[in-house]
Every structure is written in structure tokens, then in C-alpha cells.
Amino acid sequence: MAIFIMRFRLSTEQTKQIVSFLFKSLFVFWLLLSVLDLFMPGFAIRYVNLNYLLLATGTFFLLGLFL
Amino acid sequence: MNFSQLLRILKIATIAAGAALLIFLFWQKAVIGGVATYSTRLNGESNFIYGPYPIGRVERASGVVNIKDEPVYFDVYAPWQFKTANVKLTYKNESKLTAYLGVKLPGEWNFYLVELPTSADFREQSIEFDVANAWRVDNVMKFILACSGLGESEKRLKIEKMEVKFFK
To answer: Is B14 close to A43, i.e. CB distance below 8 A?
Structure first.
């Protein structure tokens, strides 16, 4: 992420926009997979670790909060 | 490249990656080819075959699982109510005890059992089960490995690998 920011010389506001977009996408995706898994047990959880997905979502949430 | 272009590329890439993953998951769920194969070396790392359990009845050695009491069970992910299941078990049964592999049918204690031949060395045995009416809850089918008299002696049933092939 730091390399990305330096490579494209992003301002704080632009970084915040990207982080916010990534947080929203990951959250929507985690929610979608969790709901699908609820109705079709094993559909997502057998292939994707939803805990890691939630961890990544939380990381972007915290990044957005402190930027 | 300006920021708006960068953001657009990032959005397209993220949506494409999400869509690709969803397509992959639905493809796996639908079992388009009609055959789903799951295998495990019984080291607990498989997402599709859980077991053998209860853990008090098994001992894990390097590359092998020793069954010291019976019966033990395996939970196998089955995204559909498949017609047949081909279970390939790599095992070693030095004892003179008769071992059975079975699939759970609907009912409280209802298993369809097939005898496993005794073997002084590791052998691979394939058994075909009709699973069209087998017990299946939360997309999981249950298999049983029974060996009467195992808990009363020092004898062990060793298993190395399990592969389940489902056919639609």
C-alpha cells in the first residue's frame, strides 16, 4: 500500500478515497459470501477463509479511520 | 495516469476479481462436470473431509492415523445429493478383526456397511456406495469406519489416505 501511494504520489485525500473504496468492496463481498454460505452451507467457507476476509476489511476500516 | 483513471482501473479490477470468485464458487457448487473429487491425507488440512473423529479414538502419527477404538466417522462435503460415491481408502489392517466402511442413511443409527479385506500392508480399497438416499444435512454426508473389537485390544487400524469421488 505504501509503495502504491509513493509510486502514484497520492495525497492523503486520494489515499483515503482508495482505502474507503477497498473497505466498502471487501465489506460488501464478505457480507455477500456470509449470507450465501448461510443459505448454502459450505458454499463459500470451504473455498474462502471468511475470517481473513473480515480481517482485511477491518484493516481497511481502521486505515480509513486514522487517515 | 491521473488519479481518476487510477481509481477507475482499481474499481474495475476489484469488481472483476469479485465476479471471478463468485463464478468460481457457483461453478464448484453446481458440479458442472458431474463429478466432484475430494481427498485428504488425514492431516486435518482438508476443507472437504473432516475426520476421523471423535479424536479420543484416533492417534496421529507421521503420515498415518491409527484408529485405536471404533467406530470413527468422516464428514464429507457434498454440495448435491449425488447418485453414487466412490470411496478410496488407503489402510492397513494387520489384525484379524473385520473392518467395515459405511455411509450414513436416514434414521437414528442407520449405516450401509461394506467389509474391508484384511491386509498386512497398506492397500488401496475402492468401494462404491449408492448415496441417492443417503443422509445429508447442511451439505455434509457422514461415513463410518467400524472394526468390532478394536477398543478391547492393543490392535490398531491404520489409515493413510481417503478419497471420495461423487457422481451426479
So the answer is: no
pTM of the predicted structure, to 2 decimals: 0.84
- Residue in B14, B79, B140 closest to A25 by CB: B14
Peptide bond into B106 cis (omega under 30): no
H or E stretch covering A6: helix A2-7
Q: What is the DSSP string of B88-128?
A: EEEEEE-SS--EEEEEE-SSSS-EEEEEEPPEEEEEEEEEE
Cα–Cα distances (Å) from A31 to A3, A28, A66, B102, in that order, read: 29, 5, 24, 38
Whole-number Å distance between alpha carbons of B162 and B40: 5
Three cell numbers at B142? 457422514
Q: What is the pLDDT of residues B7-29, one digit of tens each?
A: 899 899 999 999 999 999 999 99
CB contact under 8 A, A41 and B139: yes
Distance in angstroms (rounded) separating the CA atoms of residues B74 and B104 = 10
Measure A38 CA to nearest chain B CA, in Å: 10
ipTM exceeding 0.90?
Answer: no
Size of interface A-B (CB pairs under 8 A): 47
Tell me if chain A has a CB within 8 Å of the CB of B50. Answer: no
